[in-house]
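User: Batch of two.

Assistant: Item 1 of 2:
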Amino acid sequence: MAASPVGLTTSHLSYAVVPDSQQPAVVSATVHFEAVISSLDVVLTVAEAWKGKLGILVDPPEPATLQELVQAGRRRLRDDRLRADTEELHARHYAVSTVKAGLSS
């Protein structure tokens, strides 16, 4: 099992909550966790692809005008948001995977 992500909070456990179901608890939880993990895997794949694509872009020269400064700020904000979103998705994935592994054992 991977190391616990930095910044993992109790709010991440909300992704490990199983909704009520008519099926037995273990079966319902397993199906739910597999669906959540599958969904998170798809979103993580897209986020990682965007990170890879953004890494290819050439860094612009030092901003000289106000417009270039604004563009540089937007680029940095976009990169920071993508990094934070990816870290959040990894934390959710870790929480759900850990609960599912504990349920399976």
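Item 2 of 2:
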Amino acid sequence: MSRPEHRTSCSVRRLAPLAAALLLAPGMLAQNADPRQEIKDIAEQVEMQLQEIDHLLLESSDAQQVRSKSKDLLKQSIQRSTEVEQGIDHLIEMLIDLKSQCGGGN
């Protein structure tokens, strides 16, 4: 059975090639680099948040952990998951906008 944090991390990693392909598409290099840098920054932030979630979940699963601390760590991981979801949504919106600006159509 796969761990939920692993599936989330893998999903974002599957988005990376799409982001790279769109960023390196013909005609895009001549355009303003700011959206590309922002997309890169968002992707890096999402990756860092996913790593933090992995750490929080690992720490919360420690059998030596006090139950109340484990619950707090799980709450933090849920909050970070929401932030990751928002970051991915924003990343997708920016990629779609960038694609349409470059005449990518579908």
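DSSP finds three helices and no strands in the chain.
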